[in-house]
UniProtKB/TrEMBL annotation:
A GO biological process held by the record: regulation of cell shape
GO molecular function, one term: lipid-linked peptidoglycan transporter activity
Compositionally biased tracts (Pro residues): 28-39, 50-60
Keyword Membrane recorded: yes
Subcellular localization, as worded in the UniProt entry: Cell membrane
Membrane topology according to the record: Multi-pass membrane protein
NCBIfam families: murJ_mviN
PANTHER family noted in UniProt: LIPID II FLIPPASE MURJ (PTHR47019)
Gene: murJ
Annotated keywords: Cell membrane, Cell shape, Membrane, Peptidoglycan synthesis, Transmembrane, Transmembrane helix
Source organism: Glycomyces lechevalierae
Protein name: Murein biosynthesis integral membrane protein MurJ
UniProt-annotated stretches for the region Disordered: 1-62
Amino acid sequence: MAEPSARPGPGHSPSGPVRGPQGNNPYGTPPNAYPPPGPQTGNGYAPIGTPAPAPAPAPPQGKNVVRSSLLMGAGSLVSRVTGFGRTVVISAAIGAGLLGNSYTTAQYFPQMIYELVLGGVFASIILPLFVKAHKNDPDGGDAFAQRLLTLAALVLGAAAVLVTACAPLIARFMASPVQYDLVTEFSYYMLPALLFYGLFAILSGVLNSREHFGAPMWVPILNNLVVITVGALFYVIYTRDAVPDASGDIFVSADQVTNGMVMLLGLGTTAGVVLQVLCLAPFLRKAGFRWRVRFDFKALPLRTIRQMAAWTLLFVAANQIAVMAVIKVANAASDPDRLGDAAGFVPGVTVYNNAYLMMMMAHGIVAVSVITALMPRMTRAADGRHWPELADHLSNGIRLASFLLVPIAAAFIALHEPIGLMIFQWGAYAPEEALATGQVLAMAGIVLLPFSISQLQIYAFYAQTDTRTVAMFNLPVIAIRIGGYLLAFAFLPPEWVVVGLFAANGVSYLVSLLLSMSLLRRRIGLLGMRKTMNGLVRTTTAAVIAGGVAYGGWLLWPDLPVDGGMAKLGQFAASIVLGLVLLGVYFAACLVLRVTETASLQATVRAKLRR
């Protein structure tokens, strides 16, 4: 079925609330200051030349909205699942030793630099401007998008060339000495992906502004499938027949890694991002957009974008500094030169990254869905200065997200060992590496809820178009997080440093939660926290009971071989059976404790069954 292509009517923003200024010409540039050649176009708010005809009444959008929501939800779920599958396959192919840690470190680089150059600006500024230009410009915002795409391609292309040339310096800043050469080689292949990350983000904004939501959600799945294929090829070509060292390990020293291995992984990963961008082309044509190179950048609202983006960039930059710090500390903790030959496996950045991705998958499926549903309502309440309504939406969102996330956190904690073994013990990812990932996953379960609640509260500020407050209270949060990283590295045994890094994250999330709660209460009044805390106490109690039962079941589970088909079968059986037991006990305990969300869930299920 074709996606809707009609322009949104007045006041309708298909991609969420518009956070830009509301004046007739907010750019500070006269409409005719720089007329481009050819047909005249608007600047996103005030059309140039003859007024644009009044927009036709928007068609009924109920079915389109429902269909688009379902399409995006399904695409997001499949994308996250395949993205996690990509992580598992790559981990099985290269392990969590020197090769795995070097690949993971290099993979962070283009994404981090993209966030610093464009990511925060795009998320909070450029996308709303696309929507307004599409609604207000006579050409549907085509010229605006063409200018911005041309400028972004030039900026990102120059950034990609510059940072690729600086790959050795970046590697020395974030990697341990034994990784320098490998991380640098990987970076030469992977840093050019910076250009394509940025183009994908902007082209997705063009599609979203034209109410074509499906492609940006589904196309990344192709990227994941490409990398999964690369991982499978690597396993068949290199891992399966690899000769272990004296300790029985593979890919843990530089002499076990060849140029062909680095080239396959590096080029394969970048190829996935390139394909992701190319696959948007037919959808852009279907949406009626053609990219023509335009250099009339004076018609862009550059001054306004800079002013609006300043606080967002501060927020993004601070977070990227924390990312660089955690990668550096995780690499230093697992540095063989520091540990000596007698040390066994010590978790590094690969283990940290795998546990973090599991936490983010749970947060993305549950909390991001709640945020997406609540954001338009919170924005409408904030626009009308209906503070009690905004507080009520926030409270309801926290209770719903907590009700769904608490059992997942309990499973991460109680069943971390079988889950870690089931998901990660494949190929080059040895049992001790999978068990270490499970230990970190247990800490991720502890910090999952504070992280998700703090994110919900941050979006309450975004609903008020306030990025300054978020940036300011994020600074002490980041300082506490980095300080926690340094303390973990200084005082914990090497094998527990990565667990300590997650604990430092948890402390910073809790501080963020408390700071944002205090600031929100001053601004919008009581947040209904008594009711929220009552619900949290009840759901947490239910989760503790359910987790205790599941953990007891794991202790009584029959011992199976560490390796082989029976071991894997036992890991799957333990994780699934005990996970279902945990869920059953959790919902039963919620019924006994009269958790409000349980009654709502029951009513919804009964209503569906009656149809």
